[in-house]
Design brief:
It comes from Streptomyces camponoticapitis. The chain has 73 residues and is α+β, with helices and mostly antiparallel strands. The chain is built from two helices and two strands, in the order ββαα. It starts with a strand and ends with a helix.
Length: 73
């Protein structure tokens, strides 16, 4: 159930407030999707105009940027 509900004398009454557990789960999923999409786009843009001999160095640089954004460095 996405929304909070409560039982009354007439039965179950649905509220308009979202359950906080569901809302935080959706926020976590959305954050992962946004970050993954950004990582793919950064990689695509970085690799798009490079020669094959420079591609490994460019990908290492992109990986280092992504690690820095995630807080691992």
């Amino acid at each position: 159930m996405l929304f909070a509900s409560r039982t009354t004398r007439r039965g179950v009454e649905r509220g308009t407030r979202m359950d906080p557990v569901i809302a935080s789960a959706w926020a976590g999923v959305a954050a992962v999707v946004v970050l993954a999409t950004a990582a793919v786009l950064v990689t695509y843009v970085a690799v798009k105009g490079t020669d094959s001999r420079h591609r490994a160095a460019v990908l290492r640089g992109v990986a280092e940027i992504i690690r820095a954004l995630r807080g691992r460095r």
